Amino acid sequence: MIGKLTGFIAATHTPFLANGELNLSVIEKQAAHLEATGVSGVFICGTTGECHSLTLQERMDLAERWSAVRRGTNLKLIVHVGANCLTESRQLAAHAQSLDVDAIAAISPSYFKPKSLQALIECSAEVAAASPALPFYFYDIPSMTGVNFPMSDYLEKAAVRIPNLAGVKFSNPDLMEYQKCLHLANSKFDMPWGTDEYILSALAVGAIGGVGSSYNLAAPIYRRLLSAFQRVDLKSAQAEQYRSVQIIDLMIQHGYLAASKFAMNQLGIDLGGVRLPLTNLEETQKRSLQLSLQTLGFYDWIAL
Ligand SMILES: CC(=O)N[C@@H]([C@@H](O)[C@H](O)[C@H](O)CO)[C@@H](O)CC(=O)C(=O)O
């Protein structure tokens, strides 16, 4: 086991060329940027990575490239293998285990949804069993999957069914349920927090790390937030959290994933655009976002 995930893990974007094909050649630069800005790991092929718009082969190509690139860095590597088809998930999990990766994670199937907690646990168990040597995280993201069971119940029941269960990547803003999970089984489970705009609240109740999209472009803000929190300087921590809120709010107004990819491109990491069904920013939207980021002070906030 890798121990618990600490610090800020970037849920990475998937780089595409102008023609929409995968652009593996930029991953080295992407990793260097993330390491330089202080993230502690990468969570690839997740929501931010547009997992459901990638072919199985593309997901494996990404895992292979990241596994090679992160060697020689301090970045942890977690591969998201969730899919609607459990056979594909199992293939991805087995493939991840053949590489140098730290853990896998999987969301619930969501087109046909598990009707009971036990059915959800059976889905996780099938995937986790395909890579028994890797820690398995259930990726709880009800806003995207529409699957919503109490994660404290999931952990209690799944712990006896899934030997390699490490915890839950908690992309669910329910802080009460989060605390119940944190206190289960002598805090045995790892619970990386997945809603960046509430990370300060999560730290206050016991989080030790987060996985999220905005750590790709704004890790320095979160690092200052964490150090202010650790020295009990709540005013400074709140100020940094509010910076994150303003950035995220701006991205949401412009279409979150396309806007965050555009911002990464502006930072010199050319990740290209998003794939349909998501849509890219129009030129006017790009200009307005760029101006708003400058006016906000974004580029000063993230300077190293
Ligand atoms: C619903 C959603 O996409 N949540 C994001 C957050 O990082 C989110 O983008 C951020 O908090 C802004 O709302 C992550 O939890 C997703 C994530 O980790 C991933 O891309 O796999």
General description of the model:
- Pfam families: DHDPS.
- Its main location: cytoplasm.
- With 304 residues, the chain is an alpha/beta fold.
- It has a domain at 7-218: Alpha-Beta Barrel (TIM Barrel), CATH 3.20.20.
- 47% of the residues lie in helices and 11% in strands.
- The chain has 13 helices and seven strands.
- Helix 4 (117-129) links the parallel strand 4 and strand 5 (136-140).
- Helix 3 (86-97) runs parallel beside helix 4 and helix 10 packs antiparallel against helix 12 (283-296).
- The chain starts with 6 loop residues before the first strand and ends with a helix.
- The mean pLDDT is 97.
- It binds ligand SI3.
Per CATH, the architecture of the domain at 7-218 is Alpha-Beta Barrel
Number of helices: 13
The main sheet orders its strands as: 6-5-4-3-2-1-7
Mean pLDDT: 97
CATH class placement of the domain at 7-218: Alpha Beta
What is the CATH fold-level name of the domain at 7-218?
A: TIM Barrel
Low-pLDDT segments, ≥5 res: none
Name the hetero compounds present: ligand SI3
Q: What portion of residues belong to β-strands? A: 5-15%
Ends apart, CA distance between termini? 32 Å
Shape: globular
Which structural category do the helix and sheet elements fall into?
Answer: alpha/beta
Number of strands: 7
The ordered string of helix (H) and strand (E) elements is EHEHEHEHEHHEHHEHHHHH
Radius of gyration: 18 Å
Give a short account of the largest sheet: 7 strands, parallel
Helix content: 40-55%
Please, what is the CATH homologous superfamily of the domain at 7-218? Aldolase class I
